[in-house]
Amino acid sequence: NQLSNNNSNPQDSYASVTKKLAHNEANATNDYSGHFFRASVINAVKIEEDLRKKRSNNIILLGLIEPKLQNTDSDHINSIFEYLKQESPLSFKRLNKRDNNSNYPRPILIKLKDAKSVKDVLSKAKNLRSHVRYSDIFINADLTYAERISDSIKRKSKINNVSSVINGNPTNSVSSKVSFPALMSLNIAPSVSSHV
Prior knowledge:
The chain is built from six helices and four strands. By secondary structure, the chain is α+β, with helices and mostly antiparallel strands. The longest helix has 46 residues, at 10-55.
């Protein structure tokens, strides 16, 4: 069709058709890589959603001194939940391997009945500050790696905004909202080992 419409030199027509074909192949390659990239992002988001769903019934307890006896963790955790007036957890386990050289106790992964229980415990966790024995205990949601990075960025942004106001340089910047796909390009090692 291209050749019949062009009454000039057949060599020119061949060159223009070849050029168009090369252009179309380049666009097809770009379309393929674009589809591949989109599929990769969709897959990464799906994996993140699955991880969040898996962790939605979990909390992480930090700061509970490691016992010499095995059943002492259970006694302390039940005592903490009684103090917070919450149902006892379904299960718990210490994360990571014991390191005798570390000054910090290993975190404890606690599995609760449902996401509502997690929300209730997290809302009452601040009450531990007034408990003589458990004032150094912290309870956090069991966040994915991407959520931890996002929270870290948000905290740093808030600190920067507050310090600029304190120093007399208020900014009109809105706190950055970072979602998972935007974090895929960050290459930062996780601070707490992953668990699934």
